[in-house]
Task: structure prediction
Amino acid sequence: MNTLLPFKSNNIIRIFQELIRGPKLARDLAAVIHTHSKEIYPRVKRYILKGWIQVTKINNINVYSLSETAKKILQLQGSFERIKEKAEKVLGRKLDEDEVEILRFFYELNGYVERSENESIGEQVYYSLKRKIQLSRVTEILEEFTKARVLFAYRLKNGIILKVRLNKSLLE
Result:
């Protein structure tokens, strides 16, 4: 489950995994990461300030729970990981960083990219990703994803691609 959470610290991952199950006392969270309950607040303070963790006082005891925002973020993160795994299965290999970026772009788009008069679909993806990936690499990945049916392309009879979207079978 570690890959589903956008955190680098294993202790924070374990705390969030525990909070996914429901509200917890500091002592419960401390037991999960083998520390003292007084160390929980400083560890999660940044996530409280971000609005991901809520703290409710009941009889002077802090009860920690995930906010709706955090639940949505964690759910989306988990959904993308499943889609990435399905894409890797279809391609028969692990995706590199550039491919993950493009797959995430189409996942977050939740729709399709349409060809315009001024820019190809590859150029639109390239500019949307703020030129992090070379245009030639973007085009290469789009072609490979389309051939493997990770992306679905709407084509004219002459082969010109009008629209590209994430293959809906990956979303199921």
About this structure: Residues 79-170 form a domain with the Arc Repressor Mutant, subunit A fold (CATH 1.10.10.10). Residues 68-91 form the longest helix (24 residues). Strands lie at 24-25, 53-58, 61-66, 112-114, 151-155, 161-166. The chain is about 50% helix and 15% strand.
